[in-house]
Design a protein that fits this description.
With 230 residues, the protein is of the alpha/beta class. It is built from 6 helices and 7 strands; from the N terminus they run E-H-E-H-E-H-E-H-E-H-E-E-H. The chain has helices at 15-25, 45-51, 67-80, 97-102, 123-130, 165-188; strands at residues 4-10, 31-38, 56-58, 85-88, 107-111, 134-141, 151-158. The protein has a 7-stranded mixed β-sheet with strand order 3-2-1-4-5-6-7, with helices on one face. Strand 4, helix 4 and strand 5 form a beta-alpha-beta unit. The longest helix has 24 residues, at 165-188. The chain starts with a strand and ends in a 42-residue tail after the last helix. Glycinamide ribonucleotide binds at residues 10, 12-16, 45, 89-90, 110-112, 147, 173, 176.
């Protein structure tokens, strides 16, 4: 069967791009990367794309008069390449309603928090500051409000006692690299359709499965034990 043509839009390092490149190497994977597009000519991710023999393109937002003109350039590049699904992977530009409507339910994004908590930047610092025990990442359909839109999938990681933003961020990033290819697969296979601004849930998580912090199962002497713990 023909693979779905995707574009990956980046602004920087491109580690999520790499996760998608690796997933697409698998013959069974239903998508292929037809274009890697960056708004920054010096994005390190462009090198990863070139190393993988992928088509790359720079659409520099600074070369355009305004946001609309930049997005018209994006739209044209994506159409020219026959793109069906767009994956934002560290693409640090907010898209206007014009672009989002044109590509409605065909643009997905990964964000390093359990949305709707911690939209925007510095999510790991803010998670630590807020004292959350569980953090993670989200893949969602893009809407014109920042870091909003129907959730396709989430992955949670624990916050550990001695975490700083960098150790916590590394743990989340590892989860991102597993989550993004899995969610893109659902989208491409038509298993993540939007209905009433939600994506109906799939998967085999059981009701009894829980993430606990503090753990009721392995408490140390100093831990607070829940009422029902031995
Ligand atoms: C990733 O952590 C991604 O979730 C985040 O930027 C990083 C890009 O890293 N995206 C956002 O914050 C979007 N709001 P990468 O270039 O190594 O994939």
């Amino acid at each position: 069967m023909a693979k779905t043509k995707i574009a990956v839009l980046i602004s920087g390092r491109g580690s999520n791009l790499q996760a998608l490149i690796d997933a697409c190497k698998n013959e069974e994977y239903p998508a292929e990367i037809a274009l890697v597009l960056s708004n920054k000519a010096d994005a390190a991710g462009l090198e990863r794309a070139a190393d993988a023999g992928l088509e790359t393109l720079v659409v520099d937002h600074k070369a355009y008069e305004d946001r609309e003109a930049f997005e018209a350039g994006l739209d044209k590049a994506l159409k020219n390449a026959g793109i069906q699904i767009v994956c934002l992977a560290g693409f640090m530009r907010i898209l206007t309603p014009w672009f989002v409507d044109r590509w409605r339910d065909r643009v997905i994004n990964i964000h390093p928090s359990l949305l709707p908590a911690f939209k925007g930047v510095h999510t790991h610092e803010r998670a630590l500051e807020a004292g959350v025990r569980i953090h993670g990442c989200t893949v969602h359909y893009v809407r014109s409000e920042m870091d909003a839109g129907p959730i396709i999938g989430q992955a949670a990681v624990p916050v550990l006692k001695d975490d700083d933003a960098s150790t916590l961020g590394a743990r989340v990033l590892e989860a991102e690299h597993r989550l993004y290819p899995a969610c893109l697969r659902l989208v491409v296979e038509g298993k993540a359709r939007v209905a009433s601004e939600h994506v109906p849930m799939r998967g085999s998580v059981e009701a009894g499965q829980r993430l606990f912090n503090p753990s009721p199962f392995r408490s140390t002497q100093n831990d607070v034990k829940p009422d029902n713990a031995a």
